[in-house]
Amino acid sequence: MVGSIIPSSRFTIRKMLAPVDWDRCEVFVEYGPGVGTFCQPVLDRLRRDGTLIVIDTNPLYIDYLRKHFRDSRFHAVHGSAADVVEIVKAHGHDHADYVLSGLPFSTLPDGVGPAIAQATHEVIRPGGAFLVYQFSARARDFMAKHFRRIDSGFELWNVLPCQLFWGWKDADD
Ligand SMILES: C[S@@+](CC[C@H](N)C(=O)[O-])C[C@H]1O[C@@H](n2cnc3c(N)ncnc32)[C@H](O)[C@@H]1O
């Protein structure tokens, strides 16, 4: 369920977040933040009136993150990414602008990956994107069922080389 205990490198973080239009980002969601490698870089770029919601199934990570990130824009939720629509609504928003995922899609229990991909497509506003980093390119298969336009990249400067995908939600999707 964890996939890797090695945090993403600063090269992966920078490259993954580069296409985000931060001026137009009110709600940013992250799945599987673990110890929060991406959280500070996202908070550094996020608008003052923005919201960062991170969702992890491991309560120990959530406890740690709540203690570590004392920022009024930061919300750590103990739950599953499959419930993102309800979680975003519970925080007073209809949509997310961007969703970031470091989830190990291919090793999640049966049915969970497809459910997460579908809920993610539902929660993202038109013009927003699903940002995925993975050691395996299989994550793209889960995304492709819902996102017609997917950009891809590769980051060698990670402890394990990492595949990067950006699934864009177009207005007519
Ligand atoms: C590979 S770790 C992520 C590491 C971190 N994002 C980084 O870049 O260093 C995967 C995380 O996904 C979490 N996870 C697994 N299944 C999940 C689900 N259905 N919803 C949310 N988080 C989940 C695990 O608890 C773990 O923290």
Automatic annotation (TrEMBL):
InterPro entries: Methyltransf_25, SAM-dependent_MTases_sf
A Pfam family it matches: Methyltransf_25
Domain spans labelled Methyltransferase: 29-128
Source organism, top-level taxon: Bacteria
Gene3D superfamilies assigned to the protein according to its UniProt record, in alphabetical order: Vaccinia Virus protein VP39
Protein name in UniProt: Methyltransferase domain-containing protein
